Amino acid sequence: MRQMIRLALMAAAVLMVGATVKAQTWPANPVKIVVPFGPGGPADIYARILAQALTDDLKQQFIVDDRPGAGGVIGTEIVAKSPPDGYTFLMMSNTQATNETLLARKPYVLMRDLVAVAPVNSSDLVLVVHPSVKATTVPELIAFAKANPGQLTYASSGPGTPYHMAGELFKAMSGTDILHVPHRSSGEARADVMGGHVQMMFDAVTAMKGNIEAGEVRALATTGLERSVVLPDLPTVNEAGVPGYEATIWLGLMAPAGTPRPIVDRMNEEVVKIIARPEVSAAWARQGAVPMTMTPAAFDTFLRGEIQKWAKVVEVSGARIQ
Hints:
By secondary structure, this protein is α/β, with parallel strands linked by helices. Helices cover 47% and strands 19% of the residues. The chain has 2 domains: 2-20 and 28-123 and 250-317, Bordetella uptake gene, domain 1 (D-Maltodextrin-Binding Protein, domain 2); 124-222, 3-Layer(aba) Sandwich (D-Maltodextrin-Binding Protein, domain 2), CATH 3.40.190.10.
């Protein structure tokens, strides 16, 4: 028995040394960051920022691969089934945490088939309406929705996304009957609201700010508990008539389960260094994004807590996949 234990320990030591050596030479080939959402959304935007910085720092190409569809499931499955060799990562959001409860059938289980690497940032959402909607405040919007049940539509980038859940939470907490219109990407959803095909949307402040300033949509409120630093004149939904309302979006990186721990740790360290740069944090602050920094273990704990949190939101809101 002692001999077997010694052999097992020796084998584990050999594997650990091999993984450490692999991490020291990583990345030896181009690295792919899969974004399970469409171009132009926060995940795509910040994945490209990180990819460029990682390419510069590590002298190896980091490539962003947008794979939208099925509320983030398609891209997430691609990463979950990729080789765990440190050359494929997932740029994910609270969508993946929500989908663990919202979607009864998925080709993966998030915390079984992927491993936490690093958080990236978080930001508030903003409630916007097409200029044709005769509501300039949240109370006016709620009054219109209650007077016209089932007629007000809101766009999202797909089931389970923060935009979808923000709308469902608003619907439940305001006592209104509004209809969800899912899209393949936030860019498509945004375009439909600006075109007047869908009347309203909860969108990331980082993505919608320019459209608000251009007058293409009318902003009514932001979704944090405190006012947004980039849209300080807007009230929060909480203070504008729906007490306790809060909905934000956060981003992070995961990798296929089994990815060598030294590579996971190295990727975490590189992302933390990029986020800590004064010019990066200052630029993100101007966009309304707040950097997030955690170890892989702490991010794992955070993700498990988010899965539980959004399970409760799904239950309270009564959200269903249509």
